């Protein structure tokens, strides 16, 4: 479980996150939604330790991540996997080498064992026969799958996804969403997903937090979101005509 | 001035992260040989071409300035050797490398920064500075002096070739000049300087690449800054080392 308590973050005196309190449970896909610039990515980067909050605490089970020394954080990060918005695959490495990369650093497995694990992860994300290709030689959807395969290579306890559907067509987006949900449930991972894709919200939003201008102003699930009275959330969710008409029809 | 101190502080903090024991030596050595190929082997052709042509030019210019019958012709060889070993093969080649390998390093690391590849490494728990920068600095600092040595010999060959073609002096006079009053210390001095210059190039370029921001335009801007700062520091350290070592 991840618990965020009274989290504040500012850049150049400008508050980007304001008193954030939220919990993310294992085996559940938690979605952070909000408009561009609302503070979603900043929250995610605080969660993984890429940013230091001004105030507040982030707990991973019973460990206070924000108060840990860097050396301990480094060890802790081995339990985290992250899928980036642009996949962030290493250009210098093939698909297979990308997945093996964390194994090279943190395991003493033989090459055969690493390859076996890499093939298992690739099979798990339904991507086979791409082992020897470079990231530039595969499509955006395939890159996301490789990103997921790399993120789960070391059996992480926590998975973070920053806009996993950005740049993907709706069909591929849903495939990626379901893949993340299946993996979350299968390995009982605590998954946090940043998104502003409403398809994802409706498909896999078991727990949703809505951030508006740096504040977490609503929490619920994909059923409750339809009946919410929160005006900024409604403006965000029913931003297009089709959604507004659907809401009117109930 | 405050910005300058900020940059210097950031640079030293980055170097503290770079000079840590690698997570695994096998990974370090693999990176080391990969970087050797990229930074050194790929520079051999350009260093050879420049050294050959400059060696030839120095011989022609020196010969045309030593037309007095009272100055022995062997001094053409002496002057060519001293010019090459004292300044050209270390400082001039280092300035050229600041452009070639400096931009290569800063743009490569900068691109990795803006596409979040460095963040991905950090989240995995990998010391990205150590993994990416240490092999580059080690390769540049270790092989740089050998590039200087190679440049020196090719420069001398360039001088010899132009003498064979033009006959401005005899080859025997040239070779005699090369051997006359030869100080091996100058070779050591020049190799040492080159090691320092290559450390500057690799570490400064890595620093600017590692801190790049602002998309592809930002990478370009930071690469340019890396080359300008490296070149300026090379000239400053050239002055300091020459004063200290000669």
Features:
heterodimer, A: 250 residues, alpha/beta, Rossmann fold, six-stranded mixed sheet, four-stranded antiparallel sheet, 9 helices, B: mainly alpha
Description:
The complex is a heterodimer of chains A (250) and B (246). Chain A has helices spanning 40-48, 70-76, 95-106, 111-124, 140-151, 170-186, 198-204, 231-237, 241-249; strands at residues 2-11, 14-24, 28-33, 55-60, 63-64, 80-83, 158-162, 190-195, 207-212, 215-220. With 250 residues, chain A is an alpha/beta fold. In chain A, helix 6 (170-186) links the parallel strand 7 (158-162) and strand 8 (190-195). In chain A, helix 3 (95-106) packs across helix 4 (111-124) and helix 4 crosses helix 5. The two termini of chain A are 35 Å apart. Chain B is mainly α. Chain B has one domain (24-245). Chain B has helices at residues 2-18, 25-40, 44-65, 74-114, 117-124, 128-166, 171-179, 184-210, 215-245. The longest helix of chain B has 41 residues, at 74-114. Chain B is elongated.
């Amino acid at each position: 479980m991840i618990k965020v308590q009274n989290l504040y973050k500012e850049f150049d005196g400008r508050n980007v996150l304001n008193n954030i309190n939220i919990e993310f449970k294992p085996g559940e896909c938690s979605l952070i939604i909000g408009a561009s610039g609302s503070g979603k990515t900043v929250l995610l980067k605080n969660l993984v330790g890429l940013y230091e909050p001004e105030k507040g605490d982030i707990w991973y089970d019973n460990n206070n991540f924000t108060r840990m020394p860097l050396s301990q954080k480094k060890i802790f990060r081995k339990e985290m996997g992250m899928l980036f918005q642009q996949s962030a695959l290493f250009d210098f490495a093939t698909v297979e080498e990308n997945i093996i990369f964390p194994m090279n650093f943190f395991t003493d497995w033989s090459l055969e064992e690493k390859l076996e694990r890499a093939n298992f992860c690739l099979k798990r994300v339904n991507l086979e026969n791409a082992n020897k290709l470079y990231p530039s030689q595969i499509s955006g959807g395939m890159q996301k799958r490789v990103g997921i395969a790399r993120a789960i290579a070391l059996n992480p306890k926590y998975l973070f996804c920053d806009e996993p559907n950005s740049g993907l067509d709706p069909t591929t987006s849903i495939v990626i969403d379901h893949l993340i949900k299946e993996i979350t449930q299968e390995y009982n991972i605590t998954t946090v997903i940043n998104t502003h894709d409403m398809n994802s919200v409706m498909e896999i939003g078991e727990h949703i937090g809505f951030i508006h201008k740096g504040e977490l102003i609503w929490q619920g699930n994909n059923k409750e979101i339809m009946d919410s009275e929160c005006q900024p959330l409604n403006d965000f969710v029913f931003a297009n005509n089709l959604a507004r008409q659907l809401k009117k029809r109930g | 001035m405050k910005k300058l101190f900020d940059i210097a502080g950031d640079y030293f903090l980055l170097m503290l992260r770079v000079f840590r024991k690698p997570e695994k030596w096998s990974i370090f050595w693999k990176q080391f040989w990969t970087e050797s190929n990229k930074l050194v082997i790929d520079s051999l052709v350009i260093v050879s071409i420049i050294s050959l042509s400059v060696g030839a030019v120095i011989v022609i210019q020196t010969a045309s300035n030593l037309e007095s019958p009272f100055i022995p012709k062997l001094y053409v060889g002496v002057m060519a050797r001293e010019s090459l070993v004292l300044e050209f093969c270390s400082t001039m080649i280092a300035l050229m490398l600041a452009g070639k390998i400096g931009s290569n390093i800063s743009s490569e690391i900068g691109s990795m920064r803006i596409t979040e590849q460095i963040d991905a490494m950090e989240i995995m728990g990998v010391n990205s500075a150590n993994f990416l920068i240490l092999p580059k600095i080690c390769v540049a600092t270790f092989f740089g002096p050998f590039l200087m040595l190679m440049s020196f010999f090719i420069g001398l060959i360039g001088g010899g070739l132009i003498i064979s073609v033009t006959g401005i002096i005899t080859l025997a006079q040239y070779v005699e000049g090369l051997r006359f009053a030869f100080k091996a210390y100058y070779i050591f001095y020049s190799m040492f300087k080159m090691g320092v210059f290559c450390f500057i190039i690799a570490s400064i370029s890595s620093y600017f690449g590692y801190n790049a921001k602002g998309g592809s335009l930002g990478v370009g801007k930071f690469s340019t800054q890396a080359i300008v700062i490296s070149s300026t520091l090379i000239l400053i350290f050239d002055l300091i080392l020459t004063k200290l070592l000669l």
